[in-house]
Specification:
Elements: H1 3-18, E1 23-26, E2 37-44, E3 47-55, H2 61-79, E4 81-82, E5 85-86, E6 101-104, E7 109-112, E8 120-122
Antiparallel strand pairs: 1-2, 2-3, 4-5, 6-7, 7-8
Helix pairs in contact: 1-2
């Protein structure tokens, strides 16, 4: 599996685990053309939620992490439910019913509250 994908995914994996969701990446059985970039299958809490792709043109680690965080969020919210309830991941403040969203910070990718953007935490450090 592509090392740059694994390294860029590690902060995202931390935040999934912090939310009580086990995760793993497995080899993509149908990776496509190598020039298109790296791929892996994402499994969350025992459910294959989909395929992550990391385009070959995404060069720096922060951008890779941001790109993978946004993909992971879409896959988790679209394909994973527990007890019939959609997973709002990563959770925002306890008083908010929506998830945070992946955004680009000045130095690092962030999870940010979509209501005004004043609340944020670096991806990989979500409580």
């Amino acid at each position: 599996m592509d090392v740059s994908l694994l390294e860029a995914f590690e902060p995202v994996a931390h935040d999934l685990r912090a939310a009580g969701l086990d995760c793993q990446l497995t080899e993509d059985p149908n990776p496509g053309e190598p020039a298109a970039g790296a791929t892996a299958v994402l499994i969350v809490s025992g459910v294959k939620v989909g395929r992550l792709t990391l385009g070959a043109s995404v060069l720096d680690t922060a951008s890779r992490t941001l790109y993978l965080a946004a993909q992971t969020q879409r896959l988790v919210q679209g394909n994973l439910s527990i007890g019939g309830r959609v997973i709002e991941w990563p959770p925002c403040l306890p008083s908010h019913t929506h998830p945070m969203m992946a955004t680009r910070g000045q130095r690092t990718p962030l999870w940010t509250c979509p209501l005004g953007g004043t609340i944020s935490v670096p991806i990989g450090e979500h409580p």
